[in-house]
Every structure is written in structure tokens, then in C-alpha cells.
Amino acid sequence: MPRRDEHHNTVVAALQKDGWIVTNTQPVIRVGKRRIWVDIRALKPETGSVTFVEVKEIVNTWSPVLALRNAIGQYLLYRAAMKYIGIDGQFLYLAVSSDAYAGILSEPIGRLVLTEAQIRLVVFDPKVQEIVRWIPYPES
User: Which one, of 115, 122, 103, lies nearest residue 139 by Cα?
Assistant: First the structure.
């Protein structure tokens, strides 16, 4: 099992505050002989909705562009794997801090890649461990 991201526990706490029940951390997805682990699987009891969340920090790094490239690549890999095993990829979100959302993801390069790759975001505030915003479809 891979190492958890820096904000993994923060996002778990934020989802719980937002009314989600975290049913699994790092659930495995198998594609052939390969295994990948999404960070979080959560259930919203009142609607029965299930979501998967991949947590990424892309601001506190020496290269936000490289971190963005890696996060988007990982998201697309997970979305394809989920589709392969029959889980609708619409339930996959990339969790990013409010600083990342206000930083590189609000710059032209960030907006471009989010729109082109149709990345769904959940923005969280790590200081108060709360969800700031769900973005189910890319904004132009």
C-alpha cells in the first residue's frame, strides 16, 4: 500500500464534517495483474451517493507544474481503471487545498488542464479541515 498524502487525514476529517461516511481508505482497484489505490471512498447516507477522492498537494513543492502533471496523470489513470472495472468515473474527485485552487489551478495552465481533462475537484481548507467547494465539472 502506498504512502498517504500529506493532507489525507485532513480530507477524511473534512469529508466527515461535510456529512460523508468514509467507508474505506486506500481501496484497491485491480486491472489485470496491477493494483492501484485511490485515497478515499466515501458514502453520503441521505442520498446513497458514493464518491472516490484522490488527495494531492500541488503548492508546497519545488515545481507546481510537475506536481500538477503528476496529479492529473494519476487522476486520469484512476478514472480509466474505475471505468474498466465498472465504476462510473463521475464519482472520482481530486482533492486540492484552497491554496492550490487559488494558485496554479486558477492560472491559465491550471484552468486549461482541468477543462481539457474534465477533472472534478473538491477544494478543502487544511487549517479548519473543511470542504470549501465541490466542483463537479470544469470551469472555463
Answer: 115
- Amino acid 90: pLDDT: 64
Q: What angle do CA 108, 135, 25 make, to 5 degrees?
A: 115
Q: How far is CA 85 from CA 32, 42, 62, in A?
A: 10, 18, 35
Closest CA to 127 of 25, 14, 5: 14
Cell of 49: 451517493
Of 30-39, 59-68, 111-120, the one with minimum mean pLDDT is 59-68
Q: Which class in CATH covers the domain with range 8-135? A: alpha beta
Residue 101 Rama label (left phi>0; alpha psi -120 to 50; beta): alpha
Look up residue 29 and give its three cell numbers: 482497484
Q: Do residues 50 and 27 touch, judged by C-beta distance below 8 A?
A: no
Sequence spans of domains, the chain: 8-135
pTM metric for this prediction = 0.91
Longest dimension (CA), the chain: 41
Condensed to tens digits (0 to 9), the pLDDT of residues 20-53 reads 999 988 889 999 999 999 999 999 999 888 999 9
